[in-house]
Amino acid sequence: MARIPGEGLAKGLAVTMRHMLRKSETQQYPEVHPDLPARSRGVIALVEENCTVCMLCARECPDWCIYIDSHKETLPAPEGGRPRARNVLDRFAIDFSLCMYCGICIEVCPFDALFWSPEFEYAEYDIRDLLHEKDRLGEWAATVPPPPAHEVGAESPKELSAGSRPAPAHRTAPPAPVKGPAEGASAAQDTAQETSRETAQRTEQDTAREAVRRPAAEPASGPESRPRREPPRAMRDIRSIRPPGSLPKNAGPSPEKKDGPEGER
Question: Residue 48 in contact with residue 32, Cβ under 8 Å?
Fold first, then answer.
């Protein structure tokens, strides 16, 4: 098909005229702030009270833009206990000129000390001023939006259910009944009889076990059952000690030679 000269120009002018006649929607920033999503990744906020200086966020950060300093502090020992040491946070800084907003530090934090804040107005004229300390990060924690509500019929969080659960009552042993003199004496006699009965049963069981373990024909252990010592042999029965290396003499007759192949072997 032959193209009409100036067709593309006409289409472009039509789009321009369409937008010129349409009412424009301009957001008057900074007077009017944009409506951002609730979980937009603006800046990382810190809740200093929840940080235990476990260093997981600093170790897992792929850009190594988190700097943490701390010292140990010994707590006084409670009554009947021993003193304990804890880590005290001295410095928590994030260099946002290196941060790539991956969110790994927020995911690995086991004590919910780091959160996403929708704040984004922290631009600086100097890149070195993008290193923010824990005071500035703590100010951004107030801008963190609350978590979304649970669905209808969903279970409540375990933290809330555990906090609203009443404390278990301490169980106390029931008081022992008070017995009179006659009842106490009869109870003591019954206890003594049961104890003697159990002792007799245990003795019979032990005797039966020993009888099973003992062999049937066990020799008596008296002095008469012991074997007597043999009298000393005569000197003629004692063979003379041969010197080392000499062969013993064959005193008996030589064996007869057998006929056949067996005798030749």
Answer: no
Which value, in Å, is the radius of gyration of the alpha carbons in the chain? 50
CB 203 within 8 A of CB 195: no
Instruction: Note the Cα 217 to chain centre separation in Å.
Output: 60
Which stretches within the chain are classed as H helix?
7-21, 56-60, 104-108, 134-140, 158-164, 181-213, 261-264
Q: What is the pTM of this model?
A: 0.49
**What gap in Å lies between CA 57 and CA 114, rounded to an integer?**
9
Mapping DSSP onto H, E and C, the string for 189-258 reads HHHHHHHHHHHHHHHHHHHHHHHHHCCCCCCCCCCCCCCCCCCCCCCCCCCCCCCCCCCCCCCCCCCCCC
- The owner of tokens 């069981």 is 205
Report the distance separating Cα 159 and Cα 164, nearest Å. 9
What is the number of other CB atoms lying within 10 angstroms of the CB of residue 136? 15
Residues of the chain with pLDDT under 50: 217, 236, 238, 265
Nearby residues of 194 by Cβ (< 8 Å), 6 or more positions away: none
pLDDT digits (tens, 9 = 90+) for 141-185: 998 888 777 778 877 766 566 556 665 665 555 565 555 555 555
